[in-house]
Structure formats: C-alpha cells, structure tokens
Amino acid sequence: MSASAITPLPSSFLDALRSVFPPGRLLAEAAHLAAYESDGLTAFAVMPRAVVIPETQDEVIAAVQACAAHGVPFVARGSGTSLSGGSVPVERGIVIALNRLNKILRLDAAQRLCVVEPGVVNLQVTRAAMEYGLIYAPDPSSQQICTIGGNVAFNAGGAHCLKYGMTSNHVIGMKCVLATGEVVALGSESMEAAGPDVTGLFTGSEGLFGIALEITLRLIPRVECYHTVMASYASTEAAGDAVAAVVASGLLPGAMEIMDRLAMDAAEAAVHAGYPPQAAAMLIVELEGPRDQVAVEREQLSAIISTSGAQTAHVARNDDERLKIWKGRKSAFSAVGRLSPDFIVQDGVVPRRRLGEALRGIAEIAKRHALRIANVFHAGDGNLHPLIMYDGRDPGAYERAEEAAAEILRLCTGMGGSITGEHGVGMEKKAFLPDMFAPADIAMMHRIRQAFDPQEIANPGKMFPDAEAPALRQHGLHPLEAAGVLSRE
Amino acid sequence: MVRPTTIKDVCEAVREHSCVLPCGGGTKPALSATAEGVTRLELGGLRGIIEYEPDEYTFTALAGTPLAEVQAALAMHGQYLPFDPPLAAAGATLGGTVAAGLSGPGRLRYGGVRDFVIGVRWVDGTGELIRGGGKVVKNAAGFDFPKLFCGSLGRLGVMADLSFKVFPSPTARVTAAIECSSTGDAVDRLNFLAGQSWEAEALEFCGVDKPVLYARFMGDEPALTPRVEAVLAAVQRPGRILSSGEADAYWKECAALAGEPLVKVPLTPGRIPSLEYELAGTQGSRRYSMAGNVAYLSGIDPATLHPVLRARQLPGLTLRGGGPLRPGFISSALMEAKVKASMDPHGKFPPLLSEPYNPAPSA
Predict the structure, then answer these.
(1) How confident is residue A218, by pLDDT bands cut at 50, 70 and 90?
(2) Are residues B191 and B275 in the same domain?
(3) Which residues from chain B sit within 8 angstroms of residue A440, using beta carbons?
(4) Are residues B157 and B245 in the same domain?
(5) Same domain, B132 and B189
(6) B328, B317 in Cβ contact below 8 A?
(7) Helix, strand or coil for residue A50?
(8) Do A62 and A158 lie in a common domain?
(9) What percent of chain B lies above the pLDDT cut of 90?
(10) Does position A35 have pLDDT exceeding 90, yes or no?
(11) Residues A213 and A230 in one domain
(12) Alpha-carbon distance B279 to B163, whole Å?
C-alpha cells in the first residue's frame, strides 16, 4: 500500500484521542503502525491510520466513544494470533491494542471463577488457577501468547474441546463496551441464567458488536490423571477409522488428534517430539479423569487400539513424554514453515464418520492443484486443519492455494459440516458464509449486528460476505512466528 | 389457540396473528401464560426426531418433541443428554426446555442446555424460517443463535427444530448423602467437593437447619464406589452411600420441580447463606442445585420473595404461579432490549422484559 492512499483522520477525532492517550500510546507513524498491519493470517496486511494502547477500561471506552462520535472504524486486537484475519486492521480506521489490559481482576477459587481483562494471556489463567488445583479448560495451540479477549471474540477452541467445549462454554459473564460506546453487562458469575443467553451471543461475534472489558471465566478442577497414547497407522484413513471406533465404544477421551506424515515431519524437525518415523499417520488419544476411572478406560482403549490396525502404540510414561507429544502437536503448524515458505491453514469441520472420505477428497484436491497439503486435525470433533503449502514468490501459486482452500471448504459444507470449527470466519472465509447460510439467515445476522453497531464501525470487513474488499497480500511467516513465539493451529 | 403440525403451519400462524406465544408441554405454565390479545401456539403437534446419527453423537428434532422421546431414543444407543433436563416425566419438550433455559443437577459435570445445543431453526416475526448454528459438534461460523435461544422464553421467535450434541452414558452412578451442620457448612463442603478432581456430576442441598448434601458421581464400576467412599472419607462429615432405590427417588423428585409458585434463581454459592437468612422461616422449600449455582424456590409468597430478590440484585424466573415472569434484577437488560428490538421489531411476540428498559419518550 502506498502512503498516498492514507488520508488523515479527522483532526477533531485525533484531538479526542490525544486528550486520553499520551504520545507513546497513540501511534500514528508508519514505522510504528507496521507492527499492527497483519495477524496470524499472514496473507493479508493493512496499515491502520493509528493505534491506541489503552491501559485502563476507561481508556478503551473513551477510544470507542471517540470512534462512535466520529464514525471511525476500530479493530480490537490482542496478540494478533487470529488465523482468519480477524484482527487485520481497517484501512480507514484505528487499532485498539488491548495487551496492557492484562490484569486478572479476581480469582475466586472457592467458587471456581476468574474475572480477567481482555489482554490476559490464555495460559496465564491456568497458571494462576493451578495454585488452587484448578484450570481453565480451553487450550488453543497459541495459548502461550493469545489473549482471552481474542479467544472470546472468535470462540477459540483447542485440542480438548471434545469433552469440555470451546471458549463459549467457559465464559459466563462479561462487561463490554458496545460499538455505540454504551457499556453493558452480560450474564453474571453464576453458571445459570434467567433470560436469553446474550453472553453466548457475544462470544464468537468476531468483534462486530464491541469490545469485552471484563470476562468472567469458569474454572474446573485440575485433571487428576492423564493417559496419553500415540498410535501409528499405515494411512490417515486407518487412523480416522480408529477414531470412529473409539467414539463408537462409548469412551469420551479428552482429546483425539491425527497428524499425517508431512505434519509429523515438520513437527519432528521443530521439536523432536519422538513421533513414529515410518508411519503414514499418527493418532493421539488422551484419556483424562479420576485415576480409578482412567484405569478402567485405559483397558478399553488399549483393546480398541490393538484391533484398529495400529502399527505401533506408545503410552506416554510420564508428564515429560506427554508434554513432548503435545508440544509437537501444538507446534505443527508453524513448523510447516520449515517445509514451505508460505502456507494457508484451513479449519473445516465434517461429520466424524466422514473423516476418511474428507481426507481422500483433500488428497485429490492437492493432486489436482499440484500442491502439498499436510493434515493435522482435531479428529474427535471432525475438525480438519489442512495446511496448504505454496511459495508466494511463484506467480499464480497463491491463487492455486486459495482455490484449493476454497474447494476444501466446499467439500466440508457439502458433507453437512462447517467452514470453521474454531478460527472464525474473519476475513478469510467470509465469501463462504453463504455456503452455510441462506440470505435470510445472513440478513438476520446483519440485523443483530446493527443493534449493537448501527454505524458498522466495529471490526468492519469481517464475517459478512458483502464486506469490504480484501487487503493486500504478504509473503512469509509472521515475524513472531519466525521467532517461534506464535504458533498456528 | 392454534395447533400447528408443520413448520409451514407455524410460519402461517405467525403471519396471521398479531401477537403469538409458543407453548410446548405446558410444564412451566408461567412462561406460556398468555395476556389478552396474544395467541397461544401449541407446538405439541410439531414433534419427532428428524435426524439421529448415533455414531456422530448428534441429533435434530422438532421443537415440540417431548424430552422423554428423545431420551428413550438416545438410551437405545447408550447415549444421554448431559444437561440432565428436568420435567421430562411431566411432558416437557425440547423447545420448551431451551426456551426456559433449564438444565438439571447433572449440568455440573459437562455443562447446561446452552452448552449442548448446536443448531436452531426458528420462525421470526415476519413468518420467515431462519437458521443459526449447524449440525456438527464444533462450529464457529456466524453468530451463536442457538445459545441466544436458551432462555429466550418464546419471546424472540418460535423455535421449529433444534440440533444437539450428546455424550455416551456412564455405566454407573452413585449418590452419597452428607450431613452438614448449617447452611454455611453445606456451602463450604459443597465448594470443597466441587473443587476437587473427583468430578462430581451433581451437588445439591435444601435450605433447612441441618442440610443434607447430595453428591452424585458417575463412571464405571468397580472404580466408582471406592471413589465415592474416598469422597466420604475426605469430606469429614457423617455420610453414607444411598441405595440405588433411594438415589433414584431423590433425583426423580428433583427433576419433577414441584411446588407453586416456583421461581428459579441463578446465583453463586457464596450468596446462599444470606438468602437463607432472609428466607428462613417462610413457607415453602428452597433447593440449591448445580453446586450452588441455582436455587429453586417453591411455595414462597411472591410478596416476600420478590423484594428480597430485588434488594439482593438476584435475577429470577417464575416457572409456575402468578406475578411477574422475571422478578428480581436483570443484569443484561440493555443487551436484551437491543436483541429483542432487532429480532422482533414489530412485537410479534410478547415482551422479553416486563418493563421496557428505556421507557419510550412519551407520545
């Protein structure tokens, strides 16, 4: 983008921001803004016109009110790990960076809840809760860096959704500033409610309603015992069939993940997780619960795995081994950067019984477009994460990768699945929303968005198919990803 | 009164009448009580499971399908509704349960009705059929209308069908009864039990001088009973494991939600002692369920109860009996007002808030 394309913000608006933010927390120089132009979906980059860095909730409210008064769009941003372009800036707007609102306001161990500001990092919640024998269940792969505010906006998932659900299943109350500048309460500190679940509606609204200022999270007792099995298979379909067998047996594991050869190679190169060197696919199944219950279930699981055609089966002998397995899994996506200069992470969902069929379809799509596609997925949920590799420097390569991604999403919706399991629609998949929803459904979404954001200034350009034109493309890893700080799931 | 038997009938009924209120099994009569000028839409004829994929652990059913029918179909495949909905034996429907936002004691383990509903199709105020969510267990596309309809009280639209995820049933359940010395002691022991890795499925007690805490656990034998014995040892109060007959009778009684008037009050365990202090000595009964996250208050005179709820800023939902549908404090009132205005701009369904949040400028 050229500097000439950037027209200045209204001076009255800038004055309003200056009255709240000191110069160090109101950025308007291109050199400073560059750090905010992209997120985890590196294919898009847009320079915002300004960035504000509030340190208090009142400052966030003041920034939103200034935007509302002047009709200036804003994009709230945590750590910028969105994989759907959810926090890509708007060219004519500002970014409200929330990382400094990073206080855990209250941790009530007896009642098992925690009230946090949006900039608190996901893993910090569990770290704080562990002292009391509690955890925060949602565990997106980027949990070392992603923030609760972003998790709420995009209803983040993770490997352990099978049993405990996604972010929205753990958020029970909020205080938010709507795009109108009004401050509202949602839900309460109780798990139960006595009216429509507006907390559930706000969670996963992709920043289109406003900004969460305080979030009340439910904590659960730490898991007493884990039993993690890593089994290798001659094909991804065989691993998929094993997942179906585990599900059919009535077991409810905490997590079931599959990685194919390409994904394992990438993870091995990155973290030496000890994955089976010869197998075409690997299945990770993790049982969790009270020790005595896990002891019963591990026998059942062992019987299923041994008749599932597994080539090898390895049980993690201790916490170190278990963590290594997960570290490899959680780093798989950024590790693919070692195999390819660029890649697109997809996030489709298919009915679980059709996993094998979906994988065959993806392999055909890869072949047709002469692309390499690695597969890492939350098999227990039917949540596929194909990684489409390309070299952005080759003319036409990005277009082919994008076309392959589109075909994969259509494959998922054609099977009655979804275009996104946990990354959100964002900028990346907005063209596909009509594949899942009829015009009347989307019109209803517009209506409800209008209720909270009549000027359409909160994260515009995301989710809705008719939203603004996509941004420019970028090549290569996100700088944080290259540094090994950020990872994609 | 209108009795549609197809979704098309529902669409027509909504178009033809000026104001409609859906009603399922009528087990929460306060929710479906119609004011003058409101047409009651009896949805009992809109029943049946449309799709059930046992391998997939998901099903879709018409909104008027009785819970009991769903539970029987799931049980054939060793599956169940983990949110443990109440009033199934009395004839409650899937749609009525979602509209009321009701879950049962077992909600403690895996979550409530909001956590298991994954898709909804509803008829809006213009008679159009709208869909939100989907049919797969994990889905982040579009706004989460399925959750919004939990607790919508039939006032945001008429649910036509609903999709849910379900879980495998445990093979065994064991309930322990633990004697506590006071309300404060019961709350303390309840928090202790809920905070441990034993994974209690249900934890509740009734408001009396010396409450008995009922703790239900699930899993597989032979591991389960020893685990509950360990719980009894750790809790340091007199207690025993109930026979299966005793346990069944107790939980059946809980699921029946008896009494009139009956008010559901979401709260946190820490607020129970002060509420008990205010209500002790009144007629009626007070049951604290889901590890102290909800109170079911029955047989208490609204003239006594409602001022207490307002003063303590507690919300309430009247399920049975007269008086306001939502006595007490509504924390999300502004959000609800905005939702209602956008989804039902012409007031085709009764008001969600008994009084407008922002009184309209006087004409």
Answers:
(1) very high
(2) no
(3) 128-130
(4) no
(5) no
(6) no
(7) strand
(8) no
(9) 90
(10) no
(11) no
(12) 40
Of B255, B271, B297, which residue sits at a domain end? B255
Which residues on neighbouring strands pair with residue A313, listed in sequence order?
A231
Place of tokens 């946190």: B268
Query: Which residues have a Cβ under 8 Å from the Cβ of B5 and sit 6 or more positions away?
Result: B45, B46
Partners of residue A450 in chain B, C-beta under 8 Å: 342
Which residues are within 8 A (CB) of B307 and not within 5 positions of it... i.e. 6 or more apart? Answer: none
Q: Per-residue pLDDT tens for A146-197?
A: 999 999 999 998 888 888 999 999 999 999 999 999 999 999 999 999 999 9
For residue A117, what are its two tokens? 């500001």
DSSP classification of residue B332: T
Contact A226, A113 (CB under 8 A): no
Residues A77 and A201 in one domain: no
How many A-B residue pairs are in contact by the CB < 8 A criterion? 279
- Interface test mutation site (partner B, options A184, A190, A453, max chain B beta carbons within 10 A): A190
Strand ranges for chain B from DSSP E:
20-23, 39-42, 49-53, 58-62, 79-80, 117-123, 129-133, 158-165, 167-168, 172-179, 200-206, 212-219, 239-241, 262-266, 285-289, 294-298, 317-320
- The tokens for A102 are 């990073």
> Of A188, A221, A254, which residue sits at a domain end?
A221
How far is A296 from A276, CA to CA, in rounded Å?
27
Please tell me the least confidently modeled range out of A37-46, B23-32, B149-158, B221-230: A37-46
Give B 96-155 residues with CB within 8 A of chain A: 101, 103, 107, 110-112, 114-115, 124, 128-132, 134-145, 147-153
d(CA B116, CA A197): 13
Q: Which two tokens stand for residue A331?
A: 């780093």
* Helix pair angle (A236-248, A355-368), 10° resolution: 160
CB contact under 8 A, B293 and A169: no
ipTM of predicted complex? 0.96
Contact residues on chain B for A221, CB-CB shorter than 8 A: 194-199
- Kindly state whether residues B14 and B147 are assigned to the same domain: yes
> Is residue A272 predicted with pLDDT exceeding 60?
yes
Domain that holds residue B29: 7-168
User: What's this model's pTM, rounded to 2 decimal places?
Assistant: 0.94
Q: B28: which chain A residues are within 8 Å (Cβ-Cβ)?
A: none
State pLDDT tens for residues A318-374: 999 999 888 888 888 778 878 888 888 889 999 988 888 898 999 999 999 999 999
The tens digit of pLDDT for each residue in A432-450 reads: 999 999 999 999 999 999 9
Task: Give the DSSP H or E segment for A304.
Answer: helix A291-306
Q: Is residue A279 situated within a structural domain?
A: yes
- Residues of chain A with C-beta less than 8 angstroms from the C-beta of B342: 447-448, 450-451
**How close A219 gets to chain B, by Cα (Å)?**
9
Number of compact structural domains in chain A: 4
Examine the pLDDT at B178 and tell me if it is beyond 50.
Answer: yes
Q: How many CB atoms lie within 10 A of CB B226?
A: 12
Q: Do A112 and B195 touch (CB under 8 A)?
A: yes
- Stated length of chain B: 363
Q: Which amino acid is at B53?
A: E
The number of beta carbons lying within 10 Å of the beta carbon of residue A471 is: 22
Pick among B53, B113, B332, B353 to test the A interface (most A CBs inside 10 A): B332
What is the three-class DSSP state of B272? Answer: helix
Domain span holding position A459: 437-482
Q: Do A333 and A376 meet the contact criterion of CB atoms below 8 Å apart?
A: yes
Report the candidate in B49, B48, B3, B47 with the shortest Cα–Cα distance to residue B22. Answer: B3
Whether residue A395 is predicted with pLDDT greater than 80 in this model: the reply is yes
Does some domain include residue A487?
A: no
B219 within some domain:
yes
**How does B74-97 read in b/e, with b if 16+ C-beta sit within 10 Å?**
beebebbbbbbbbbbebebbbbbb
Q: Are residues A415 and A332 both part of a single domain?
A: yes
